[in-house]
Design a protein that fits this description.
This protein has 202 residues and is an alpha+beta fold. It has nine helices and four strands, in the order H-H-E-H-H-E-H-H-H-E-H-E-H.
Length: 202
């Protein structure tokens, strides 16, 4: 597990000759969905951009980053701002597991307040949970011997329009996935901030 953390890098150049099968992509995503989420609601969706037409649309709405055209697939990570609602099928999973109607209703009421009482809370809910999935995807990618690159320097509204994404969904980031082009150098990892620089113990 330590190797995954140490070896994962944000790769800028992908080998266009190496594809990713749908079976491998499915394995990566299903592994990644073990990521935690609030009340196990899993308020996330993914658009897997594979076709040349779709890649071109994403390329044009992502500051024309070449990696989008080079990587065999780029994922658009979406957070569901209404994922706390009673319509989420994960609530039925909770009920089936515990068979407690009162507990279910209490959890639904708590989630509605915590995550749905303001627009800001809806956005925080959607994006924080989708962010957990995104990092999990990148580790699952590395576990399978592939590489990735997350992108937030993108036109969020443009992507939502180009891919007809409902307004209840928030475009959180994109992640290019593929095999590093070995003819291109990966620069040494830069120094990370230390524990003492980022942690305040109170």
């Amino acid at each position: 597990m330590v190797d995954i953390f140490e070896n994962r890098r944000s790769v800028n150049f992908f080998d266009k000759t190496k594809d990713i099968s749908n079976d491998l992509l499915k394995k990566i995503i299903e592994r990644a969905t073990l990521a935690p989420s609030a009340f196990n609601l899993q308020p996330w969706e993914i658009i897997a951009v594979r076709s040349e037409e779709a890649k071109q649309k994403l390329f044009e709405t992502s500051n024309r980053q070449p990696k989008i055209l080079e990587a065999p697939v780029t994922l658009i990570i979406l957070g569901d701002k209404e994922g706390f609602s009673e319509n989420n099928s994960s609530w039925k999973v909770m009920y089936d597991a515990f068979k407690n109607e009162e507990s279910l209703k209490n959890s639904q009421n708590a989630a509605a307040f915590l995550y749905g009482s303001t627009e800001e809370r809806k956005i925080k809910f959607a994006e924080s949970n989708a962010g957990l999935l995104a990092m999990s995807i990148m580790y699952a990618v590395k576990e399978q011997g592939l590489d990735s690159h997350p992108m937030s320097g993108i036109d969020f509204e443009g992507i939502a329009k180009a891919f007809d994404i409902d307004s209840s969904k928030s475009v959180v980031m994109t992640i290019a996935i593929g095999y590093h082009d070995d003819s291109k150098e990966i620069f040494p990892r830069l120094k990370r901030k230390s524990f003492d620089e980022i942690v305040k113990i109170v």
